[in-house]
Amino acid sequence: MLQFIYGLPRSGKTEWIFEKIKELSLQNQKSILIVPEQSSFETEKRALKTLGNNFFQNLKVLSFSRLFDEVCRNHGGLSAKMLSDTEKVIFMSKAPFSAMGHFCSSVPPRAIFAYSTVI
Fold first, then answer.
1. What is the pLDDT of residues 61-81, one digit of tens each?
2. pTM of the predicted model as reported, rounded to 2 decimal places
3. Do residues 61 and 33 make contact, with C-beta atoms less than 8 angstroms apart?
4. Do residues 19 and 70 both lie within one domain?
5. Which end of the chain is more exposed for a tag (fewer CB within 10 A), N or C?
6. CATH no. for residue 26?
7. Containing domain of residue 17, as a range?
8. What is the pLDDT of residues 90-104, one digit of tens each?
9. Is 101 helix (H, G, I), strand (E, B) or coil?
10. Contact yes or no for 31/24 (Cβ under 8 A)
11. Does 71 fall in a domain?
C-alpha cells in the first residue's frame, strides 16, 4: 500500500514511519521507504540506529533513481541478459546460414554469406 506522510517539521513524521515499519516487520512484511536523493544515506543510517538490525532487514530505503533501477533490474529492461560483442558477431554470422533454406535453396552458403556481409 502506498501511503504519503506529510506534516510540519519536527511533528513526528519520521518516528511514526519507523514505528509503522517496526509493526509491519513484526508481521514479517517488507517495507520500502522512498526518500529524496540527498537524504537516502542519512535515512538509512537513522533507520538502522532507530530500528536495529532485525527490523532493518525488512526495509529498503530508496531514492527515486534507486527505485527506478530496482524496478528495471527486476521487472523491466535491465532484467534481460545482453549479448556481448563476441556473442553478437557469432549470432550475426550464423543468421544468413539459418535463413538460407527459407529463401534460396540453390545458392551456395558462401555466396549468401559474402552477399550479406557486403550489405
1. 999 888 888 888 877 765 566
2. 0.57
3. yes
4. yes
5. N
6. 3.40.50.300
7. 13-79
8. 777 776 666 555 555
9. helix
10. yes
11. yes
